[in-house]
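Fold this: AP-3 complex subunit beta C-terminal domain-containing protein
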Amino acid sequence: IKKLVYVYLVRYAEEQQDLALLSISTFQRALKDPNQLIRASALRVLSSIRVPIIVPIMMLAIKEASADLSPYVRKNAAHAIQKLYSLDPEQKEMLIEIIEKLLKDKSTLVAGSVVMAFEEVCPDRIDLIHKNYRKLCNLLVDVEEWGQVVIIHMLTRYARTQFVSPWKEVVMAVAQLYWHIAPKSEAGIISKSLVRLLRSNREVQYIVLQNIATMSIQRKGMFEPYLKSFYVRSTDPTMIKILKLEILTNLANEANISTLLREFQTYVKSQDKQFAAATIQTIGRCATSITEVSDTCLNGLVCLLSNRDEIVVAESVVVIKKLLQMQPIQHGEIIKHMAKLLDSITVPVARASILWLIGENCERVPKIAPDVLRKTAKSFTSEDDLVKLQILNLGAKLYLTNSKQTKLLTQYILNLGKYDQNYDIRDRTRFIRQLIVPNEKSGALSKYAKKIFLAQKPAPLLESPFKDRDHFQLGTLSHTLNTKATGYLELSNWPEMAPDPSVRNVEVIELAKEWTPAGKAKKENPDKKFYSESEEEEDSSESSSDSESESGSETGEDEEDSSGDSGGDSSESGSESEAGKKRAAKSSKAKGKGTPVFVPGRTHVLLHRMSGKGLAAHYFFPRQPCIFGDKMVSVQITLNNTTDQKIENIHVGEKKLPMGMQMHVFNPIESLEPAGSITVSMGIDFCDSTQTASFQLCTKDDCFSVSIQPPVGELLLPVAMSEKDFKKEQGMLSGMNETSTTIIAAPQNFASSVILQKVANVANVGAVPSGQDNVHRFAAKTVHSGSLMLVTVELKEGSTAQLIINTEKTVIASVLLRELKPVLSQG
């Protein structure tokens, strides 16, 4: 009823302002209600009453709500800002102050709403975003969908005003670096960046496409996902079209060839004749490289022989000639069809190709070949030089195979060639006459004339023109021209033995000696070695941009957020369902604390010794109850002094924790001797999330920013329960509380001991006894809230299994499922 009353007030407040004003006091009282939902509803209705006289009351309510402990109420305050601004734009300056405060909020629930208010009220105040830019980028992944859209739009405008457009030259330089140096598994990341450059001007496109053409010959898989990016547009210049064709040909395989052939059919109809001819050549290359579509491509090219465009027909003839060289016996009908086209085709290359094909297969078309020779003898004097040479070759082959019908014709053609204006034709004529028409002066070669003219010719190789360009460095002028340009430096081969890495060590130059009291000698530090290749390259969190210290006011706000978060939690917990509380109470009777099945010995780097100036720190999770609190995860930190001097006063400095997270630090360590090591314990309440706990690890002289991020499996404690209790709890946690996936692996990976070890290695769970050999059950509870986490691995027939997780914590369940699946699948 209360909600209906709220709706009524919002609807009729403008028409009946007096009655609406009487209800204001009710909403003001509701703004102080302990329940966050009531506070938020009251603010929502109050801001929806569009009566100008209550603007001061609305402003006061928004100010108070913006500092509320509940993020849900703060979210509604951000929504109310937009409503108040539309009602009274003169309140803009005061609203901007509230927006500035809410932009500093670290809750993902508030981020999208306050950015929406920013876009509505003051989109030109870019200065408000500066200090919150990185935070918004980090929160973007966890914000709800509509909030992500708003933030992305705002960040897009921000980036276009604050950042310089990236140089295409830099992208190309990084791409060639990865290509020549990086392992194959890592080189694939450059493909997306190169494809993005194809949106640039035509000059940049030309260079990028040339480099992609070279790469795609050796590594097709890099660019196969972006196949459609290389489809030709009608607005592309010819040089770009031909390069895209080259790349499409390199990427063609059995899976995508049918799609590409349909695309090529469209290209053949293009008004750009050079491009259409290049497409026909591309179809020929696909036919030679993919045998499954050879006949399809050949039939398609034969259909093009009836095209109205003479250039298309001529190019088709040339390509068909090359394809028939590979399998001439099977396609006698095609040769006959091409012989009939000889009268209509005028392009010299095509006519020469037809004559060459007939000459090579003259014994297979014994009735057609002499007639073709008769027709071409009549037009010999008017033919192109290329065609004349093939007429001479055809006459010689027919003279050797069918002398009875063609002897006189061949002699006539040889006489015409003897007096031709072109000396190449005259020379070829004399050569052929001496071979096929023996006389007293003929040598021994005339005996082998048939073997010379009718020998089996090797089929041509249709290769990419970019095949041999990979020895040039990508992105260089030499690679573009396919020839070594002046000043080009070739890339050296990889050395068989690695040179001495010590040449890259940096010596520390002592500029001035420190003053020391008389009679006391100061120990000199030995030269510190940097960048040693023998050391492991480990990522350390101290290199993050968050290492900058914040101002005192921000620190104060962080403390307010963290101290007030407990109140927020209590108010939020009031909205939990009573059924959930009853279920937790019942389950606590059925389950008891279990012991870890397995404690993995892997450690994580907290502080690298190079970054810590000799102080190294590693941490691991011992999977034992935390002595500092029931809701905390136990973390053990091992500190090592790798220097030759004592490190004093090691302690935890400033803490930068998300809202609600708490940390119990170790007691300060007075000193750590050279080469000494010590292990200390900490307790961290991660609030059932994998958010990072950031803090400063300090010594007497320095502070280092470090962070601990827990794997989701370390946020659990094992639970001991019976199979009956497990099934009962699982039945209560079905529906939306159930997450599952299918696993495929070898049968040996589904042995009971293997599954137990793999699951326990990922998550701190307890094994539940099972009466079925094909079902493995594990139980745990979250450290912070004590919510049950039930894991089931059910083996199916063959090599599949079903992984099921039941819990109220659906986010943790999805993350745990994502981590368990690859572990159980691998051998």
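The chain has a mean pLDDT of 81. The longest helix spans residues 552-573.
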